[in-house]
Amino acid sequence: MRKSRIGQMEIIGLVVIVILLTMGMLFMAMFALNEEPGTKVFTRKGLASSTMAALMKTTVHECGSYSLPQIEKHLIEDCAVNKGSLYYDYSCGGKNSCDYLEEKIPQLLNDTLGKWNKRYEFQTLLISSNQYILYVNSSRGNCQRRERDTSGEYFLPTGKGLVKSVLYICD
To answer: What pTM was computed for the model?
Structure first.
């Protein structure tokens, strides 16, 4: 009788161990299959950062000069310095740099982020006067009241003060 009782205890112990191992594996599988929110945020932040870097370094062919101007280095600076005046250093497609960028930036962002059904917001602000030089929202709605990530701020010193550009991508 004593041997059978020990055998029963061993079997019960083995059953408990198997149940615990099964529950542990179920929890591991559950956590492995759930999408982590950190991954989504990291992907959105990386997309915002790389899109902004590419946008700022984009060269423009419609400006009719010998050297191809870049959006950030030449056109945004020209827009910031000359906004509201009659004279601009760059004329692109028959438009001054500000008017041209107001059309070109949404076109470029819609050709990439828009095709991927991403909402975005692009801002360029002249800090000294606290006024927006450029402000572009996606056609699918703005990012004001949504979870969003940023490209980080791009600063450009100009003759009129510091210009800050930023791209937000949201759900």
So the answer is: 0.70
